[in-house]
Amino acid sequence: MFSVYERVRAAASPREAHALWRRERDALMGTHPASPLLLRDRAAFTGLSVADYDPAYRFELPLSPGGAGQERPVRTGTDGVVPFVRLGTFEVPGIGSVAAWRHQGYGGGIFVPFRDATAGRTGGGAGSYGAGRYLIDTIKGAFLGVAEETAARNSAAPDRAHDGARLGPRFILDFNFAYNPSCAYNEAWACPLPGPENRVEAEIPVGELYG
Fold it and tell me: Which Pfam families does the UniProt entry name for this protein (predicted)?
Protein backbone atom coordinates (compact mmCIF):
# COMPACT_ATOMS: atom_id res chain seq x y z
CA MET A 1 0.00 0.00 0.00
CA PHE A 2 2.94 2.37 0.53
CA SER A 3 3.70 2.60 -3.19
CA VAL A 4 0.01 3.06 -4.00
CA TYR A 5 -0.33 6.04 -1.67
CA GLU A 6 2.92 7.55 -2.96
CA ARG A 7 1.38 7.68 -6.42
CA VAL A 8 -1.93 8.89 -5.01
CA ARG A 9 -0.23 11.81 -3.25
CA ALA A 10 1.60 12.70 -6.47
CA ALA A 11 -1.57 12.84 -8.59
CA ALA A 12 -2.52 16.11 -10.27
CA SER A 13 -5.85 16.48 -8.46
CA PRO A 14 -7.85 14.79 -5.70
CA ARG A 15 -10.27 13.40 -8.27
CA GLU A 16 -7.46 11.85 -10.33
CA ALA A 17 -5.91 10.54 -7.13
CA HIS A 18 -9.18 8.87 -6.22
CA ALA A 19 -9.50 7.19 -9.62
CA LEU A 20 -5.95 5.85 -9.26
CA TRP A 21 -6.66 4.66 -5.73
CA ARG A 22 -9.76 2.77 -6.89
CA ARG A 23 -7.87 1.02 -9.69
CA GLU A 24 -4.98 0.04 -7.45
CA ARG A 25 -7.18 -1.24 -4.64
CA ASP A 26 -9.17 -3.34 -7.07
CA ALA A 27 -5.96 -4.82 -8.45
CA LEU A 28 -4.59 -5.58 -4.99
CA MET A 29 -7.82 -7.12 -3.76
CA GLY A 30 -8.26 -9.24 -6.84
CA THR A 31 -4.72 -10.49 -7.43
CA HIS A 32 -2.37 -9.92 -4.50
CA PRO A 33 -1.39 -13.08 -2.56
CA ALA A 34 -2.14 -11.28 0.71
CA SER A 35 -5.61 -10.14 -0.36
CA PRO A 36 -8.20 -10.70 2.38
CA LEU A 37 -10.67 -11.99 -0.21
CA LEU A 38 -11.36 -15.68 0.17
CA LEU A 39 -10.17 -17.77 -2.76
CA ARG A 40 -13.73 -18.66 -3.68
CA ASP A 41 -14.59 -14.96 -3.91
CA ARG A 42 -11.63 -13.91 -6.07
CA ALA A 43 -12.85 -15.70 -9.18
CA ALA A 44 -16.04 -13.63 -9.23
CA PHE A 45 -14.42 -10.37 -8.08
CA THR A 46 -14.99 -7.47 -10.47
CA GLY A 47 -14.13 -4.55 -8.22
CA LEU A 48 -14.91 -2.96 -4.88
CA SER A 49 -18.05 -0.90 -4.34
CA VAL A 50 -16.83 2.70 -4.08
CA ALA A 51 -18.89 5.89 -4.28
CA ASP A 52 -18.10 8.53 -6.88
CA TYR A 53 -15.74 11.26 -5.75
CA ASP A 54 -17.38 14.14 -3.87
CA PRO A 55 -15.09 17.09 -2.99
CA ALA A 56 -17.43 18.12 -0.15
CA TYR A 57 -15.90 15.33 1.94
CA ARG A 58 -12.29 16.49 1.62
CA PHE A 59 -10.87 18.49 4.53
CA GLU A 60 -7.55 20.01 5.60
CA LEU A 61 -7.58 20.07 9.39
CA PRO A 62 -5.24 20.52 12.34
CA LEU A 63 -5.02 17.86 15.01
CA SER A 64 -6.26 19.45 18.24
CA PRO A 65 -4.87 18.23 21.59
CA GLY A 66 -8.31 17.26 22.88
CA GLY A 67 -8.18 13.88 24.59
CA ALA A 68 -4.46 13.42 24.00
CA GLY A 69 -2.89 10.79 26.23
CA GLN A 70 -6.05 8.73 26.67
CA GLU A 71 -5.26 5.02 26.57
CA ARG A 72 -7.58 2.49 24.99
CA PRO A 73 -7.05 -1.26 24.81
CA VAL A 74 -8.74 -2.57 21.67
CA ARG A 75 -9.80 -6.17 21.26
CA THR A 76 -9.11 -7.39 17.72
CA GLY A 77 -10.00 -11.06 17.84
CA THR A 78 -7.07 -12.99 16.40
CA ASP A 79 -4.43 -10.60 17.79
CA GLY A 80 -6.08 -10.30 21.20
CA VAL A 81 -6.00 -6.88 22.86
CA VAL A 82 -3.74 -4.20 21.39
CA PRO A 83 -2.90 -0.91 23.16
CA PHE A 84 -3.61 2.49 21.61
CA VAL A 85 -2.92 5.97 22.96
CA ARG A 86 -4.81 9.01 21.74
CA LEU A 87 -2.85 11.69 19.89
CA GLY A 88 -5.64 14.24 19.71
CA THR A 89 -8.86 15.00 17.87
CA PHE A 90 -9.92 16.15 14.42
CA GLU A 91 -12.95 18.45 14.47
CA VAL A 92 -14.54 17.77 11.09
CA PRO A 93 -17.08 20.38 9.91
CA GLY A 94 -20.53 18.90 9.40
CA ILE A 95 -19.39 15.49 10.63
CA GLY A 96 -18.14 15.74 14.20
CA SER A 97 -15.17 14.81 16.36
CA VAL A 98 -12.89 11.97 15.28
CA ALA A 99 -10.00 10.83 17.47
CA ALA A 100 -6.52 10.04 16.16
CA TRP A 101 -4.58 7.19 17.77
CA ARG A 102 -1.11 5.67 17.93
CA HIS A 103 -0.63 1.90 18.09
CA GLN A 104 1.63 1.27 21.08
CA GLY A 105 2.40 -2.33 20.22
CA TYR A 106 4.33 -1.89 16.97
CA GLY A 107 5.02 0.62 14.25
CA GLY A 108 3.50 3.68 15.91
CA GLY A 109 2.11 6.04 13.32
CA ILE A 110 -1.36 7.57 13.11
CA PHE A 111 -4.56 5.53 13.05
CA VAL A 112 -7.97 7.10 12.36
CA PRO A 113 -10.93 4.72 12.08
CA PHE A 114 -14.54 5.88 12.08
CA ARG A 115 -18.09 4.60 12.07
CA ASP A 116 -20.88 6.76 10.62
CA ALA A 117 -24.64 6.55 10.10
CA THR A 118 -24.29 4.47 6.92
CA ALA A 119 -22.69 1.58 8.85
CA GLY A 120 -24.65 -1.64 8.54
CA ARG A 121 -27.25 -0.15 6.22
CA THR A 122 -28.81 -2.64 3.82
CA GLY A 123 -31.37 -2.34 1.07
CA GLY A 124 -31.76 1.02 -0.63
CA GLY A 125 -29.08 3.66 -0.27
CA ALA A 126 -25.34 3.46 0.26
CA GLY A 127 -24.34 1.30 3.19
CA SER A 128 -20.89 0.79 4.68
CA TYR A 129 -19.32 -1.99 6.74
CA GLY A 130 -21.22 -2.32 10.00
CA ALA A 131 -18.16 -2.17 12.25
CA GLY A 132 -16.68 0.91 10.62
CA ARG A 133 -14.02 1.99 8.15
CA TYR A 134 -10.44 3.29 8.14
CA LEU A 135 -9.41 6.78 7.04
CA ILE A 136 -5.72 6.91 8.04
CA ASP A 137 -3.42 4.03 8.93
CA THR A 138 0.17 5.14 8.43
CA ILE A 139 1.58 1.79 9.56
CA LYS A 140 0.11 0.37 6.35
CA GLY A 141 0.94 3.47 4.28
CA ALA A 142 -2.65 4.75 4.10
CA PHE A 143 -2.03 8.49 4.45
CA LEU A 144 -2.79 11.39 2.10
CA GLY A 145 -0.27 13.75 3.71
CA VAL A 146 -0.48 17.31 5.01
CA ALA A 147 -1.58 20.44 3.21
CA GLU A 148 1.26 22.08 1.29
CA GLU A 149 0.46 25.54 2.58
CA THR A 150 1.34 24.57 6.17
CA ALA A 151 5.05 25.19 5.65
CA ALA A 152 4.36 28.36 3.67
CA ARG A 153 2.18 29.78 6.45
CA ASN A 154 4.86 29.11 9.04
CA SER A 155 7.52 30.72 6.86
CA ALA A 156 5.32 33.76 6.40
CA ALA A 157 4.82 34.17 10.16
CA PRO A 158 8.16 33.27 11.81
CA ASP A 159 7.48 35.71 14.67
CA ARG A 160 4.75 33.40 15.96
CA ALA A 161 7.20 30.65 16.90
CA HIS A 162 8.48 32.45 20.01
CA ASP A 163 5.09 32.51 21.76
CA GLY A 164 4.03 28.95 20.97
CA ALA A 165 1.61 30.06 18.28
CA ARG A 166 3.51 28.45 15.41
CA LEU A 167 1.02 26.77 13.14
CA GLY A 168 0.99 22.99 13.15
CA PRO A 169 0.33 20.76 10.16
CA ARG A 170 -3.07 20.59 8.54
CA PHE A 171 -3.76 16.95 7.74
CA ILE A 172 -5.62 15.94 4.61
CA LEU A 173 -8.72 13.99 5.63
CA ASP A 174 -10.57 12.87 2.53
CA PHE A 175 -13.43 10.52 3.32
CA ASN A 176 -13.63 9.56 -0.35
CA PHE A 177 -10.59 7.40 0.44
CA ALA A 178 -12.22 5.63 3.40
CA TYR A 179 -11.87 1.88 3.10
CA ASN A 180 -13.09 -1.27 4.80
CA PRO A 181 -10.81 -3.17 7.18
CA SER A 182 -9.65 -6.57 5.96
CA CYS A 183 -11.93 -8.35 8.43
CA ALA A 184 -14.90 -7.09 6.40
CA TYR A 185 -13.92 -9.67 3.79
CA ASN A 186 -12.29 -12.36 5.91
CA GLU A 187 -12.96 -12.86 9.62
CA ALA A 188 -9.55 -14.50 10.04
CA TRP A 189 -7.96 -11.04 9.90
CA ALA A 190 -7.41 -9.01 13.07
CA CYS A 191 -8.89 -5.52 12.85
CA PRO A 192 -8.95 -2.79 15.50
CA LEU A 193 -12.32 -1.09 15.13
CA PRO A 194 -13.72 2.34 16.04
CA GLY A 195 -14.54 3.00 19.68
CA PRO A 196 -16.94 5.67 21.00
CA GLU A 197 -14.45 8.47 20.24
CA ASN A 198 -14.58 7.60 16.55
CA ARG A 199 -18.31 7.19 16.01
CA VAL A 200 -20.22 10.03 14.38
CA GLU A 201 -23.93 10.52 13.81
CA ALA A 202 -23.50 12.05 10.37
CA GLU A 203 -23.87 10.08 7.17
CA ILE A 204 -20.69 9.74 5.12
CA PRO A 205 -21.90 8.22 1.84
CA VAL A 206 -18.51 8.27 0.12
CA GLY A 207 -15.51 5.98 0.11
CA GLU A 208 -15.64 2.21 0.01
CA LEU A 209 -19.12 0.81 0.59
CA TYR A 210 -20.30 -2.64 1.61
CA GLY A 211 -23.07 -5.08 0.96
Answer: DUF1684 (PF07920)
Pick the more confident residue, 159 or 104.
104
Residue 146's identity, in one-letter code, is V
Q: How many helices (H) and strands (E) does the chain have?
A: 4, 7
Report angle CA 50, 120, 139 to the nearest 5 degrees.
60
Model confidence at 124: pLDDT above 70 = no
